[in-house]
Amino acid sequence: SKPIVAVVGRPNVGKSTLFNCLCGQQISIVKDTPGVTRDRIYAEVTWLDKSFTLIDTGGIEPDSKDIILSQMREQAQIAIDTADVIVFMTDVKQGLVDSDAKVADMLRRSHKPVVLCVNKVDNFDKLMPDVYEFYNLGIGDPMPISAISKLGLGDLLDEVIKHF
Ligand code: GDP
Ligand code: MG
Question: What CATH number corresponds to the domain at position 74?
């Protein structure tokens, strides 16, 4: 069967926006117990000569830092358990936050291939300097993208399929 790629990251970094722009067709929605954060949406993506299944992990609207962190840990654990490659998404506008660092540690310890993606880089010339701080996560080169403007997506996908 096809490799599985999961997108994880803080709420509102743009995971679903990326998912929607990459997916040709949505193949299924898996809902677990209402109120918990386990809804998963799967799509088929083809890039160059490679196809894979992309998973978007949804979530409730968190209202505290504790809930955000526990939700991110849960997403990351799902990704570690099920994915071949994990795309860890951060947000250049929010900058590097504590929960990013905690989840990055968890992903690093898993020894799964991780592609670090920095979203909302809507203007590469202006915002690239802000991307460099994400090197501090210690999980590799940050790949700048703008999911809304569809910038950097080819380079991101190239990086993802290298791991298959
Ligand atoms: P998720 O919670 O991680 O799934 O985030 P969403 O995909 O729902 O996006 C959260 C918000 O960020 C929405 O208002 C999006 O329109 C916005 N957003 C997503 N991608 C970008 C981007 O590349 N640039 C900017 N400026 N906003 C974005
Ligand atoms: Mg979402």
Answer: 3.40.50.300
